[in-house]
Fold this sequence. Notes:
This protein is an all-alpha fold.
Amino acid sequence: MKEGNKFYSIFNFKCPKCHKGDLYPTRLSEFKKVFTMYDHCPACGQPYVIEPGFYWGAMYIAYMISSAIVLTGFAILFFAFGFDIIPSFIIIVILTGMLYGLIFRLARSVWINLFVHYDPNRSLKQQEPKPEKDH
């Protein structure tokens, strides 16, 4: 994926405006801070919280992603590998729980990319934003 593409911004968790700054100050592997998000882009200053309650819509995106994982995973386990219903359900619940942080971040990334569009001429702003608590 190349910079300037929506998929680049979504899957690399980059600012949708400049594709340079990160959406999150920590890596996904830092479980205690998986929900911490910058208020503004560290590179261009684009606000990430556009209005109060902005990320409520990301819940629907997360629901769609989770549903796709559950339905696809269940179909593969049940039909392709011949697992019974209960073991399939248990495996899918564990898998979805393990992917919760990724689903959360991906949903927010998709949501902000629906409303903020790439601007290759966005001037870089040299400031170090402070991470905000959970939104």
